[in-house]
Amino acid sequence: MGPLPSGVFRRHREPSSLTRWLPLPVRIAATWLLMWLLVLSLARLAFHVGFAPAGGDWASLGAALKLGLRFDLRLALWLVLPVLLVGWMPLLAPWSRIRSVRIVWQVAVLLLSLAVVLIYIVDAGHYAYLSQRINASVVNFAKDARTSAGMVWSTYPVLRLVLLLVMLAAALTWVSKAIFRQGLAPAWPGQPTTLRRRVLSRTLWTIGVTLGVLLGIHGRFSQYPLRWSDAFELPGGAYSASLALNPVLSLYDTAAFRKDSPDVAAVRKHYPRMAAYLKVDHPDAQTLDFSRQGVPRPGALPHRLNVVVVILESYSGYKSSVFNNPLDPSPEIAKLAKDGVLFTRLFSAHGGTARGVFASLTGIPDVQLGDTSSRDQQAVDQHLIMNTFDDHAKWYFIGGSTTWGNVRGFLKRSSPDLHIVEEGQFKAPVSDVWGISDHDLFKETIRHLQDAQAGGDKRPFFAVVQTAGNHRPYTIPQADLGPPDKPGPFLLRDVPADKLAAAGFSSVLEFNAYRYLDWSVGRFFAMARQQPWFNDTVFMLYGDHGIMGQPGANMPSYFGPLGLTNGHNMLLLYSPRWLKPKRLDMPANQVDVMPTLAGLFDQPYLNTSLGRDLLDPRFDADRSVFTFMPEVGLLSADRYVTTGAAGHGGRAWALQEPLLEVPVAAREQEMQQLAQAWYETARYMVKHNPPRSPASPVVAQP
How far apart are CA 26 and CA 24, in angstroms? Predict the structure, then answer.
C-alpha cells in the first residue's frame, strides 16, 4: 500500500450538509453520474444545433429532449454502475490508496471516455451523411475498409476530429480523476462509527441505491422498459425521433441485426423468379422494384365498409374445432367459419407473436436471425396496405402494451394516424402480464368505437384487435367464471390427460385458455351484432402463429414430423351481408392476408410486399407457402422442401400417408430456388419497403 499523495488533506473540502449523509461510494458515484448526464445532454444539444431542420416547433423539441434525457440517464447509470459495485470495497475502488489500482481505473476511464466520444463523433458523421443515427450496420463498412477509409478522409476533417476526440476524452478523464480523489480524504463527522451502524447503513443504502439504479435503467414506472420505439411516437416526425435517441444505446440495440444485412447481389440473382411469382408490373432488376397495382375485380365491395381484423394469439390449427379437434375447444369460431370465407391452409412462415404481427401487417416474412424485425430500428418505415384505407379512422387495440416487441415503433412510424389503445387506457382491470383479458379487450374495443362515433367521427373505421390470453400463464379472470346459473359465464372443463394429449393439448390450463379465447370471440360477435355498423363491416380473423406439437387424427400425420404445426392456423373472412360462405384449401401465406383483404374492395391499392391476393385467380397455378423455422423451406399442395446454406443441399418429401422422403429432382430443385428467392428478397425488403402513396415513383435502392 503506497503513501497518500501529498496535499490530499489540504486540497480536500469537507462535504456540504446536503451531501454529508451520503455514503462515500454513493456520493462519488452520484457526482460522476451528474458529470455524464451533463456531458450527454450537451452532446444532444450540439446535435440539435448542428442538424435541426427549419420550421421545428417547441413542443416537439421539448418532448424529444425530455425523452432523450431518460435515454441519457440509462446510459449514464450503466457507465457509473461499476463504480457503485466496487465502491464498497476500499482497496479496489477508484479512490483506493493502492496507487496501481488507481492507475488501472484511470486507464479504464480514459478508454471508456474515448469509446463514448468516438461513438458520438461517428454518429454525427453518420447522420450528416445518411440522415440516420448510428446503428450496428456501420460495422459493415469495415468489409471494404480501404474504400470506406478513403471516403471518410475525403469527406470529413479527420485530423481535427481526432484532436477533438483526444481532448474531450482527456478532459473527461481529468474531471473523473478529480471526482474520485474525494475518496482519498479521511472520514468526516456524522458518518456511522460503530460496526453495527455501519453494517445497517450499508445494507439500507445498498438496497435503496440498487432499486433506484434498476428503475433508472428500466426507464419508466411500467411493466415494459423504456425502448427506442418510444422515440418514433414523438410529434415532429423523423427528426424528433433522431434527436431523442442515444447513439451508444442505439448501437447496442441494433447489434443483434448487424449480420442480417441483405445480400443485394443474391436479391438481383433471384429477382426474375420473384418478379414473375409476384407478377410485378414493371420489373427492373436495377431498382429492385417489387411494386404492383391491385386492381378491383368485378363485384368488389364498397370501399367505405368498416374493417375489423382480429389477430388470434397462438391459434394453432390442429387444436381448433374448425379442423374437427375431438374436444371441440373453439365452437364459436367454427360457427363463424361455416358462414364465412375460410382458408384452411394458412401458414405463418415462423413462430412467435412479434414476427407474426410484423409479417401479417407488412406482408414481409420476418427472417431476421438476431431478433424480430419489429425490434430493428432500420425496419420501422414500412409501406402498409392498411394505409390504403385513407378515409378510415384507424385503430389498434391490444390488452397490454405495444412497447412489447417494440411494435409501437413500426406501427406509428408506418401509419402516423393510427390510434393505439393499450395498457393504461382501459377501464377494465389488468388480468396478468399481458394486460387486460381478451373478453375485456373486445368490450373495450366496442366501447371505444361507440364513443368515437358518438363524438362525431362518422368515418368508417379500420380496427386491429390483438388478443393475448391464449398464452402462458393462461389467466382466466374470476369475473368471467361463475356458477352454471350465472348468465353467460365461462365454465372450466376438466379433461383427462390422455384425452388432452390425443387432442394436442399439453395441459388443462392450455386447453381452457384456448376455449376462453374462443368464448371471448363469441361474446365479441354477440356485442358487435347489436351495433349499427355490424352489417357494413368485414371481419378478418387469423392466427399470429401455430404451436409446435403432435396433432391428433384430425390432421394429416405429416404435420407433426415436418414441424408444420408451428405455422399452421387459418384465415377467415366474415361478413354475412357481403360475403358468401366458401372453403378454400390451397396453400396460403400469412403475408397474403392484407393483399387479400384489400382485394375485396373497389379501390386500387399499391402492394410492395411479398404477399399476394389469395382470391386472385392469376396466382392459382403456383400456390405455395414459404417457411422459415429457421430452415428455409417451401410447401406446395403435395411437396415440402427445405434448403441448406445458400440454397444448396436440403431435403424433399411427398405429402402423403405415410410421409415419404423423395430425391431432390428437377421439380424439388425449382422449389428450393423459389424458397431461397423468398428468403433473400425478404431479408432485403424488410429494410427497403418505405411508405409510398399509390402514385409514388419507384426509387432506386442501394
Answer: 5
Residue 7 is predicted with a pLDDT of 43
What's the confidence (pLDDT) of residue 305?
98
Contact 397, 464 (CB under 8 A): yes
Cis amide prior to 235 (ω within 30 degrees): no
Contacts of 201 (CB under 8 A, 6+ apart): 23, 192
Residue 608 and residue 383 in contact, taking contact as beta carbons nearer than 8 Å: yes
DSSP secondary structure of 504-543: T-S-HHHHHHHHHHHHHHHHHHHHHTTSTTGGGEEEEEEE
The pLDDT of 379-395, averaged and rounded, is: 95
Please tell me the distance from the alpha carbon of residue 401 to that of residue 389, in angstroms, as a whole number.
Answer: 24
In a 3-state reduction of DSSP, which class is residue 353? Answer: helix
Mean of per-residue pLDDT scores for the chain:
88
C-alpha cell, 148 = 470506406
| Close Cβ partners of 171 (under 8 Å, ≥ 6 residues apart) | none
pLDDT above 80: residue 341: yes
Q: From the CB of residue 657, how many other CB atoms can be counted at a distance below 10 Å?
A: 8
Distances in Å between the Cα of 441 and the Cα atoms of 388, 524, 628 are: 26, 9, 31
Omega within 30 of 0 (cis) for the link into 690: no
C-alpha 645, offset from chain centre: 27
Residues 6+ apart with CB under 8 A from 215: 221
**Average pLDDT estimate for 234-252:** 86
| Phi, psi angles (nearest 5°) of residue 386 | -55, -35
Q: pLDDT value at position 260?
A: 65
Distances (CA, A) of 376 to 75, 143, 174, 234, 368: 19, 21, 37, 18, 9
For residue 160, what is the enclosing H or E element? helix 158-180
- What average pLDDT score do residues 260-279 get? 93
653-661 long-range contacts (CB < 8 A, ≥24 apart) are 653/558, 653/562, 655/556, 655/558, 656/558, 657/556, 657/557, 657/558, 658/557, 658/558, 659/557, 659/558, 659/561, 659/562
- Listing DSSP states for 412-477 in one string gives HHH-TT-EEE-TTS-SSPP-BTTBS-HHHHHHHHHHHHHHHHHTT--S-EEEEEE---SSTT----
Grid coordinates belonging to 96: 483506493
- Maximum C-alpha span of the chain: 92
pLDDT band at 237 (very low <50, low <70, confident <90, very high): confident
pLDDT in tens, 52-99: 887 777 788 899 999 999 999 999 999 999 988 888 788 888 998 899
Q: Give the span between the Cα atoms of 487 and 485, in whole angstroms.
A: 6
| Confidence at residue 647, expressed as pLDDT on a 0 to 100 scale | 61
Contacts of 649 (CB under 8 A, 6+ apart): 643
Reply yes or no: is the peptide bond before residue 658 cis, omega within 30 of 0: yes
**Spatial separation of the C-alpha atoms in residues 468 and 628, rounded to whole Å:** 23
Our measurement of the distance from residue 39's CA atom to the centroid of its chain's CA atoms, rounded to an integer in Å, reads: 31
pLDDT at 143 over 90: no
* pLDDT tens sequence across 408-440: 888 998 999 999 999 999 999 999 989 999 999
Give CA–CA dist 513/480, Å, rounded.
12
pLDDT-derived band at 11, boundaries 50, 70, 90: very low
